């Protein structure tokens, strides 16, 4: 009887495991989330797995044996509670398949008014307030220098959110 199970995959091999399992006629579900991240100094939307290294699969253990699944490239093992692989309820799979979040910002990406710490450059070690992006690779920060607030453009790679 077909049922949903949860696999733990080897680090960085989630896509490989999914491809090889789909070749074996196993249904796979890897929920993803769209995140806004700063990559190489630029704000970029990236799609990442909602559960890194975990893959939901649907198969019939009487047709495809669990050892065949475990031996698939990229798969580490089944998630188990006790000796047997745990069956994931269909209601959970249904909720995960319809859940489509978008526009979520990485917690490390600062927003207007957030405190940041400058980690590189002439102002290294100073705290500042993030005001706005300044192009793709820089941002405007409000610095407190000699009791005077100064607006300064700083590379996105030279500061981090506190």
TrEMBL record:
GO biological process: DNA-templated transcription elongation
Domain NusG-like N-terminal: 1-100
One GO CC annotation: cytosol
Keywords: DNA-binding, Transcription, Transcription antitermination, Transcription regulation
Keyword Zinc-finger tagged: no
UniProt keyword annotation of DNA-binding present: yes
Gene3D superfamilies in the record: NusG, N-terminal domain
CDD domains per record: NGN_SP_RfaH
GO molecular function, one term: transcription antitermination factor activity, DNA binding
Primary role: Enhances distal genes transcription elongation in a specialized subset of operons that encode extracytoplasmic components. RfaH is recruited into a multi-component RNA polymerase complex by the ops element, which is a short conserved DNA sequence located downstream of the main promoter of these operons. Once bound, RfaH suppresses pausing and inhibits Rho-dependent and intrinsic termination at a subset of sites. Termination signals are bypassed, which allows complete synthesis of long RNA chains.
Subunit-structure text: Interacts with both the nontemplate DNA and the RNA polymerase (RNAP).
Family classification: Belongs to the RfaH family.
PANTHER family: RHO-INTERACTING TRANSCRIPTION TERMINATION FACTOR NUSG (PTHR30265), TRANSCRIPTION ANTITERMINATION PROTEIN RFAH (PTHR30265:SF7)
HAMAP family listed in its UniProt record: RfaH
Protein name as annotated: Transcription antitermination protein RfaH
């Amino acid at each position: 009887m077909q049922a949903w199970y949860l696999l733990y995959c080897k680090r960085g091999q989630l896509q490989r495991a999914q491809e090889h399992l789909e070749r074996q006629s196993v249904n796979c579900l890897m929920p993803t989330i769209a995140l806004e991240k700063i990559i190489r100094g630029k704000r970029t939307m990236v799609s990442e797995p909602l559960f890194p290294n975990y893959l939901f699969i649907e198969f019939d253990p009487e047709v495809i044996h669990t050892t065949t699944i475990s031996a698939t490239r990229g798969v580490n093992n089944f998630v188990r509670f006790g000796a047997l692989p745990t069956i994931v309820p269909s209601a959970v799979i249904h909720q995960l398949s319809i859940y489509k979040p978008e526009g979520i910002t990485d917690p490390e990406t600062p927003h207007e008014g957030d405190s940041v710490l400058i980690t590189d450059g002439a102002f290294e070690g100073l705290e500042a307030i993030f005001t706005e992006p300044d192009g793709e690779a820089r941002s405007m920060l409000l610095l407190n220098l000699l009791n005077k607030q100064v607006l300064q453009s700083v590379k996105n790679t030279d500061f981090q959110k506190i």
